[in-house]
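Minutes, methods subgroup
Present: GH (chair), OT, SY

1. OT presented the first of two proteins processed in the latest run. Sequence and structure tokens recorded below as shown on screen.
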Amino acid sequence: MKKITLLAYSFGVILLSCKENKAPEQAVNNKPTNTAVAESNEVQLTPEQLKAAGLEIQPVTTRDMYTVLKVNGVVDVPPQNIVSVSMPMGGYLKSMQLLPGMQVNKGQVMAVLEDPQYIQLQQDYLVAKSKLRYLEADFIRQKELNESKANSDKVFQQVRSEYEAQKVLLSALREKLQLINIHPDKLTDGNITRSVAIYAPISGYVSKVNANPGKYVGPTDVLFELINPADLHLNLTVFEKDMANLAPGQKVVCYANNNGEKYAATIHLITHNIDENRAGEVHCHFEKFDKRLLPGMFMNAEIALNNASVNALPNDAVVKWKNKTYVFVATGADKFTMTPVETGTSNDGYTEIKTALADKKIVTRNAYTLLMKMKNNEEE
């Protein structure tokens, strides 16, 4: 029995010794590697680094900020500023010196047309005018005879009917002459012309030229299209879900893709219908005319929806890392902690901060310098 007890005791000592020898090895093997080290959210700068960084530290400020609705649209002109020019009686285009983009002034000759029907119309007018003088004299004579009972009422009524019908005919011919820009009062048998001129009805720019010399144009053919850019407006497309947030008078900032210059505008009119694309039109007036704005130009726009007093920081204070937003809080003269924050709207160089940061000093300039310094330290 003593031998068995001694043997069991010796075997237990050997097992315990083996376990103690393996423990250090396991501890060494389980030591965390560099890839498992938790990322630090603090960074400390040396005096030299702090001076070179050019940091600015300020507390969170309160600012009046608004929510921005981003939409797009085109520069447009109202329908009354787009004029289609045609010749009511048609004719052959004799001469024309216009090209799209050329500027014209109101009353300027745009083209000259000629046609035999212009001659016939002038002839009809002069003949009708001469006949009216004869009928007028006959009417006065027959009226005096009728008053003295020297002729019958039937004869007088017939003369009066012819006289009044001739007046109507002359008035109609007069209007036709004016349609083709011939002044009836200046027309005589010595200045009958086969040509008529087309004058610019407004001042503006030629946007379309649809005819060339020698071509016959009908009464319904549009020869030219003029645009008066004096009343340019911005026509925005807004989806129906956002229409309820808009109202006349709201401020709009718009800009084109070809240059970064921004233009101020104001909502003037909102349409009361939604199209097949589930969107409506919003008409805005520019606060200042710029000749570089052309009808049809595509524009991006930002509409200020509401105004509220919120906590905000300069845009330079906010950094992004791995799809999250942070700011650096100064915890000492040379120590800074990267703190996650929830942001809101951004405009005028400031970003709304929804996270409570009261009484904390925030790095508001060159915050990305601290972020790069922190990530470089983690890699070393």
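2. SY then presented the second protein from the same run.
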Amino acid sequence: MSTQFQAFKNKVEHCLCAPGDGVFTVNTAKERKAALRNKLYGQTENVDALWRDSLNELPNSPHKAVMLGISSDCGGGILRGANWGPLFLRSALIDQQTQCRSFDLGDVRVIPHLLHDKYLNEATITNCQKALYGNDNNDHFVSPLSITEDVCDSFYATFQDKGIFGIGGDHSISYPLTKAYLKAKRSQGKRTAIIHFDAHTDLLVERLGIDLCFGSWCTHILEFLPAPHHLIQFGIRSSGKPKSHWESTFGVKQHWAAEIIERGAAAVAADTIAQLKADKVDEVYVSFDIDALDAQFASATGTPEENGLTPQHALDILSAIADEFPITGADMMEIAPFTDSSLVGQSSSETTLREGAKISAFLIAAMNR
């Protein structure tokens, strides 16, 4: 066991926990955790020890895709509940996508009131360190965005041939996931692009005075890309400003939902592939907000939107891109299983989970290639 891996493992054992345990519960819904534990380990007791032992297998794991759950919805703010996404999506993958294989790193330890350490004073950080880690003689981060970036930085420094598949949680979580990814690839001399599926641009500078949230994370990762237009967005349709505003202001490339529906996924994918080749992109990261899909397919989310993409639209675009470029990092965000805002006759949370699992399984398989 290398010294570098041992240092990474020590960090993981402090800052993460067993899969599904990242969502904060006392007694309510604890049976949900027990059900996942049975699926993963065949038992509900001594799971923490089994998870810690499993970490030793990571260096020799045949899977390039490494799953990380971040059960935080503190960076959201419309309809909450995406903190349950990691637990429920794992269960859906096990039950419905039996061919899906990845190494499960576990969940970030989440204090549900926190977002990023930069918003906290020293006294709060010290108190939270005691709560999370059991003593005050540590310098670990305490907020989900801060912990995620720190763990991912260490992961990419230790495993250059593997990638993180992140499960959220609200979309603010993609900020540390993509930032760590982009920094690592830049240090390796790789040219990257972010493929972003969403009903919303997520290009605010701040929201209600907070700069890192579900509506602004894209703005703050642009500086880590080779160029702003290496952020390519698909499915946009809920915006107070036209496409021209976002593209001219931020320099990004957008394909709105109406364009994809009208022209067809194949034509849009062909344009994207041509752009990526012209930009000499080596690898891509896919960030998928489930609300990119039309509300009939994805109602169990904080901001469901009509007139969106079908799951087939998304899979057709992703398949075409994956045939030409390695997908080496990805995430699935904003599945909120207990928050089904559908109207009578529309979809249920089971439908949202089913479609989210299909797309997640595709992305994991692409990463493993």
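Chair's summary of item 2: The mean pLDDT is 95.
Next meeting: continue with the remaining queue.
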